[in-house]
């Protein structure tokens, strides 16, 4: 029984990693928003669909460009 629970736990962990990595692949961090006052225009100029400033952590805003 312990082996089956371990396999299930490892499988769930791998599934969670896959879901998290696929969500992260939808956006690329261009840099801090204070370096890109117009984040959307900067992302479009680099060939992405659009861009938005989103809180990264510690009160810092990051300019994320959408890849899809």
- Tell me roughly what share of residues is in helical segments: 40-55%
Q: Strand fraction band? A: 25-35%
CATH superfamily: Knottin, scorpion toxin-like
Examine the secondary-structure arrangement and name the CATH architecture: 2-Layer Sandwich
Query: Mean pLDDT, as a whole number?
Result: 78
Number of strands: 3
Q: Judging from the principal axes of the Cα atoms, what is the shape?
A: elongated
Q: In terms of per-residue confidence, which ranges show pLDDT below 50 for 5 or more consecutive residues?
A: 19-23
How many angstroms does the end-to-end distance come to?
43 Å
CATH topology annotation: Defensin A-like
Order of helices and strands: HEHEE
Number of helical segments?
2
Quickly name the level 1 CATH class.
Alpha Beta
Largest sheet: 3 strands, antiparallel
Domain tally: 1
Protein name: Defensin-like protein
Keywords: Signal
Signal peptide: 1-24
């Amino acid at each position: 029984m312990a082996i089956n629970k371990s396999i299930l736990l490892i499988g769930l962990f791998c599934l969670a990693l896959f879901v998290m990595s696929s969500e992260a692949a939808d956006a690329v961090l261009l840099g801090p928003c204070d370096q890109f006052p117009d984040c959307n225009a900067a992302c479009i100029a680099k060939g992405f669909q659009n861009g938005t400033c989103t809180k990264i952590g510690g009160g810092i805003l990051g300019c994320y460009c959408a890849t899809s």
